[in-house]
Amino acid sequence: MTSTPTSTLDTSHLPALSxxxxxxxxxxxxxxxxxxxAAAQTFTAxxxxxxxxxxxxxxxxxxxxxxxxxxxxxxxxxxxxxxDRRAAVPEAIATARTHAKPxxxxxxxxxxxxxxxxxxxxxxxxxxxxxxxxxxxxxxLAGEDPTPDAIQAFAKDHGTVVALTGAVDLIAxxxxxxxxxNGHPLMTCVTAMGCAGTALVAAFAAxxxxxxxxxxxxxxVTGVAGEIAANEANGPGTFQPAxxxxxxxxxSATLVTCGRVS
Length: 262
Fold this sequence. Notes:
The protein is an alpha/beta fold and 262 residues long. It has one domain: UDP-N-acetylmuramoyl-L-alanine:D-glutamate ligase, CATH 3.40.1190.20. It is built from eleven helices and eight strands. It has helices at 14-28, 41-51, 61-69, 83-98, 114-124, 135-142, 148-158, 193-207, 211-232, 236-249, 252-258; strands spanning 31-35, 54-56, 73-77, 103-106, 130-133, 161-164, 169-172, 177-180. It has an eight-stranded mixed sheet, sandwiched between helices. The longest helix is centred in the C-terminal third of the chain and has 22 residues, at 211-232.
């Protein structure tokens, strides 16, 4: 990073907000419809269930209108862009927008394929509530490295919140950059961790009117759960079930104690 993030948001309440949103998710059983990649489907569903939400996962173009309509939020993940998903994604986004439901875009591997990058830019034109990406994906979309200033400018230009995950997660809108420092390196050793975590971003966006706060809260929850799981796991093979168990047991007091956000 070449500049220091500055924030106009008082972030001191975000750990408590994370706990509150997690409690509400469990009480209200928020449903997220996830058009996600084949490698991420099972873990995405299990993460939502462990957190207290409900998943649906169909990618059939003839079904997505009905499934998106009955869900509180939509996740669009571009990791497996087969024919069905390419047809289903625009239908699902249009449905979410028509019904004023939040939707989140995860532009997986857009740096690897020009056609995928073009498709992601078409999706971005429909202004997702949150763009959850990593550094490589952001660079492909923005044409520049993900400095805090660049992330904030991109968020302003596209009318979205950018949630860039990495060693430190940066979440930005046009006015604010928030840093979430929770997480563990083992989270990068399990496939679909970021993809599945984006579903929690979508769920929290359905519960809270501020997209930047919802995204930061969701990343804080997954980061704290990852830290707890890492203390119990022997490696990647035991980390994933330990993560789901930690998420299932997570409470507000732990988030307030362990959350590191600025």
